[in-house]
Design brief:
By secondary structure, the chain is of the alpha/beta class. The protein has 11 helices and 24 strands. A hairpin with a 6-residue loop joins strand 16 and strand 17. This is Beta-glucuronidase.
Length: 492
């Protein structure tokens, strides 16, 4: 049944002001150092024409990974495309960061010290800092929390963190925020010492935050990096033990400045042995699209209990854990990304860190060519059109009409609407009472690697020259929203 909606005339109730760096992203520590990361899918798997081999258990996890060289953070295309997105937080973390040793003077000679799994060199970190500076980024990191950073009594030692904080500050790119560790709810996967308990985490995060507040008071403390919890019947691990965030936070004495969690709608095809996987033919469903909103509401309660008044940061966000689904690099995932952005802003102020900027199948950019994928164009258009003030449309979200309203990015009078028509087959009719400009994102087919703006392909010219991103003027009247599209409407 076709959805028909009439936009209201007059002013809308104001909800909140969002962080200007709402759209941020991850550059995984393993991208900086080089090392293992998720294997790339084959073209046939991306098209949905080839099955992804399934694993039996965790012992086979290594077969999902391959070794990659360090990301080319000096590549001009990557630099220009990151800069075009605008100011962002850049998170350097991931499970790999938990076991990485900072060798900023070369004293190891490339030999990994006992208690660590990898090394970060000065040259590698310099390139990352240069990248952050060029794109007007702010840096969020997670330090090591492995056997190699233990005091004799087993507590966490801040020496490695101090080293990288001081070095980055002296280089001219100070670190803005620290998240103590990556995904402490599943320490079995994260590289912490064996038998690391919730009490150990609370003690060590307190040590870290106290150290920062006493010595680096301008640095934001971020935590606990919640993940893996069954906040909805539509998500969760099958058999893996997950520590509840309440158990991690109950013993903490130092309150974080920012509450953080991770948000993946499911496990990817290759990670389906770990937990719930959603197939591609359900990627437009109300249940699937509602998962990030359920997460935001769930963690908002914990934020209010343990960090009242703090922002919420989704320090990793993507369609699926374990490197993304086969369709992560296609237009199909734009519907989810758009809806997560819009609905998150109705719940809380904060930041969403897309995982990743240019690694694996869920990256904004292709790993090899650094050409932008469909989700990059969505982020770019959002940042060009949607202002930081959020308003309440007063309309229920339903299939065919997920509508979110912000101020205009240019500061002019009027509103910027983003309407997601998630119906795979039905158009929606939108009655618009004023003139405006329309920008509709679509694709020739859902798993297309190419995205269209008002029917025309969005493509770079030269190294990194962006197209004009021009909208189409519309008069007051009825606007037809095609199935499986994201439409931005900027009103006069």
């Amino acid at each position: 049944m076709m959805t028909k909606i009439k936009l209201p005339i007059g002013s809308l109730p104001f909800l909140r002001e969002m962080d200007s760096r709402l759209i941020s992203y991850n550059i995984e520590m393993t991208e900086v150092t080089g090392g293992t990361f998720w294997k790339l899918y084959t073209p046939a798997q991306i098209e949905g024409k080839e099955e992804v081999p399934q694993l039996a258990d965790l012992s086979q996890m290594g077969s999902l990974l391959e070794i990659f060289p360090p990301a080319d953070l000096q590549d001009q295309r990557a630099l220009e495309l990151a800069k075009a997105l605008g100011p962002a937080y850049i998170r350097v973390s991931g499970s790999w960061a938990t076991t990485t040793y900072y060798d900023l003077d070369g004293h190891t000679g490339g030999k990994v010290p006992e208690g660590f799994h990898s090394i970060l060199t000065r040259k590698q970190w310099d390139r990352l800092l240069d990248f952050v500076k060029y794109v007007d980024g702010k840096l969020l990191i997670s330090p090591a929390n492995c056997d190699g950073v233990r005091n004799p009594d087993g507590t966490w030692n801040p020496e490695q963190l101090k080293l990288i904080l001081d070095y980055s500050r002296d280089y001219g790119v100070p670190i803005s925020a620290v998240e103590f560790m990556n995904e402490p709810n599943t320490t079995i996967l994260g590289g912490t010492p064996s038998n690391y308990t919730p009490e150990d985490f609370s003690r060590d995060q307190d040590l870290c935050f106290r150290f920062l507040k006493e010595n680096y008071p301008d640095i934001l403390t971020v935590g606990p990096c919640s993940s893996g919890e069954k906040f909805s019947p539509y998500v969760g691990y099958h058999n893996l033990s997950v520590i509840p965030s309440e158990d991690l936070l109950e013993g903490c004495k130092e309150q974080a400045d920012v509450y953080s969690y991770h948000m993946y709608n499911c496990f990817s095809e290759r990670g389906a042995f770990l937990g719930i996987h959603w197939p591609g033919d359900k990627a437009l469903s109300e249940e699937y699209l509602g998962i990030p909103w359920e997460a935001a509401c769930y963690y908002k309660k914990l934020r209010d209990q343990y960090c009242p008044g703090a922002q919420m940061w989704v320090t990793e966000s993507g369609d699926a854990g374990c490197g993304g689904n086969t369709w992560a690099s296609t237009f199909l995932d734009v519907i989810r990304s758009a809806d997560e952005l819009g609905r998150f802003c109705t719940v809380t102020d904060g930041v969403i860190f897309h995982n990743t900027f240019m690694a694996s199948d869920y990256g904004y950019l292709d790993f090899e060519t650094h050409l932008p994928r469909p989700n990059y164009w969505l982020a770019l258009l959002w940042n060009r059109l949607m202002g930081s003030k959020v308003y309440d449309l007063g309309q229920e979200i339903r299939e065919g009409f997920h509508c979110y309203v912000h101020s205009r990015k240019d500061g002019k009078k009027g509103y910027a609407y983003m309407i997601v028509n998630n119906s795979p087959s039905e158009a929606a009719l939108l009655e618009v009472p004023w003139r405006g400009t329309v920008y509709t994102l679509s694709a020739e087919y859902l798993r297309s690697p190419r995205i269209l703006l008002n029917g025309k392909p969005l493509e770079l010219t030269g190294t990194a020259q962006l197209p004009s991103l021009e909208g189409a003027p519309v008069e007051a009247g009825t606007l037809t929203l095609a199935p499986a599209t994201v439409t931005f409407l900027v009103t006069d």
